[in-house]
Amino acid sequence: MKKGVARGLTSLAKISLAAGIIAxxxxxxxxxxxxxxxxxxxxLRAFAACWFGxxxxxxLSARRWKALxxxxxxxxxxxxxxxxCLIGAFFNNIMPGSMGGDILKAWYCARVDHxxxxxxxxxxxxxxxxxxxxxxxxxxxxxxxxxPDLADPxxxxxxxxLADHVGRALVAGGQHHQGAVPLGAVLHPHAGGGEARDxxxxxxxxxxxxx
Length: 211
Hints:
Elements: H1 2-29, H2 32-40, H3 44-71, H4 78-94, H5 100-112, H6 117-150, E1 155-156, H7 159-177, H8 183-187, E2 200-201, H9 204-210
Parallel strand pairs: 1-2
């Protein structure tokens, strides 16, 4: 009976702590009026898809970590490891750096088998390394896919076009300080979505012709 009461009080304390931290973050870091405006324009289908994808990420991450934990000889339930992942993600978001959650994951995992604390720490480190390598592989694949776009040759400006761009920049410089015109929109008037797609290269001949 006493153990049940103590466990209930511990759970209540954890929930209260989490709720207090979330409330503090909302009060200190979030403009609630702006948040309300964003929520009113929220696409519920896209929001649900994001939640599903984010949840799936934790499910797969916990499955990967379980495989690494079992290699260390630690017999931990999948549900417990999933909970440790969620706790670690929560503290990664509120603590400086990105290792606070990993420390908690290792600590909770070590509590499962006190004789294999080193194995618990090793499993967390290995999980972090595997995640980094996966991210690197995804980035490399994206680079390969976008390589043809990145290989476009730079475009040279003639003297007249150079003078036009310089004039636009000077005009925009004055208006930009008044908040009227974004400087990038004038320098790259044909770039969509604020993205400059043309790389301007000036050689000595262009500069000599301009002068």
